[in-house]
Amino acid sequence: MTDAYALLPEDWARLCKEAGWPGFRAKQILQGLYRDRIGAWGELTTLPGAMRDRLAACAPLALPREVARTPSGPDGVVKFLLEMADGERVETVWIPADGRVTQCVSSQVGCAMHCAFCASGQLGCVRSLAAGEIVGQVMALARAQGRYPNNIVVMGMGEPFMNYDAVLRALRTLNLQQGPNIGARHITLSTCGVVPGIERLAGEGVQFELSVSLHAPTDALRDRLMPVNRRWPIAELLAACDAYTAATGRIITYEYTLVGGLNDRPAHADALIRLLRGRKARVNLIPLSPVAEFDGRTPAHADCLAFLDALLRAGIHTTLRRSRGRQADAACGQLRLRNPKAPTHGTATEK
Ligand code: SAH
Fold first, then answer.
1. Residues 39 and 182 in one domain
2. Ligand 1 centroid to 18 CA: how many Å?
3. Ligand 1 mutation target, pool 114, 190, 195, 201, most atoms within 8 A of CB
4. pTM metric for this prediction
5. 88, 91, 133, 255: which one is catalytic?
6. CATH number of the domain bearing residue 164
7. Residue 313 Cα to ligand 1 middle (Å)
8. What confidence tens digit (pLDDT) does each residue in 295-335 have?
9. Does 32 share its domain with 156?
10. Both 50 and 80 in a single domain?
């Protein structure tokens, strides 16, 4: 049994062949899934009933159930809480801007990386999502909103490179022309700095965009903020990034969350400039979003602008991310485990 949303056209062709179905059925199936966005195999009425029954048994749709949605704030950002077949829940965010929509998807239920400022990792990682569940987040919102997003960012809960195979398979599906057809350059993966993932991605021959969360220009500071740095310190991380750029020709975007007083001083900007000068790099500055468990300060707007200005003057292509989604508690780092599944075994209340 496999999630229907995890199957690529060649898998469908093989499945049809094995079942003794003519090849055109594969095309009908893909149209039903991604053009008509069926919610159950029973809706695919171009197929004979026996085929639909067989598909329901061997390739169920991992379409997560919408449990809640935060009302959209003035910026139009909507956060959805989705429930998987086993009751685990993840958040995904619909972010409209200038007539285009970006969907931020989760790759894991929770996160094991424990970055100090991020809510997603506060309770650890419950499990990784299957490829079909990652695609399923996009399908659930496409059905709810009546359209696909223009861009996908794997920047929700979870560390995508700790769930490498499922994430890559999901992104290949989202990229399919016979599928959601989201252009590779409109799909961005973000990693906290899992070096083996960067190395693997360099050899995939895909055109997805890669962002790397840096957040500090020195190992001493990055160690404090991101435990991953103790495993793969800055020099090792940047060497992998350089190799990635050399192999793919793709420029990496470094994310740098500004925390008031902690990493937003002119000296930090200078250190970051020294680190990135001469490298092919873009920088995306993100003002800290408030998270209950982290006592860092939101940076002053003037300090963000000064930091931005210093990098720009040094010739580094830099943007300051508009802070969006805060009303919906859906900004960077604010996605977290919600109403974690109640334990089903051995609880005191069980009779
Ligand atoms: N695990 C991946 C995907 C998360 S992407 C990664 O670490 O890259 C979300 C981005 O927002 C990352 O750069 C993350 O470090 C950053 N972030 C996390 N918590 C934040 C917060 N409270 N305020 C602003 N940015 C935050």
1. no
2. 44
3. 190
4. 0.93
5. 91
6. 3.20.20.70
7. 26
8. 999 999 999 999 999 999 999 999 998 766 666 676 777 77
9. no
10. no
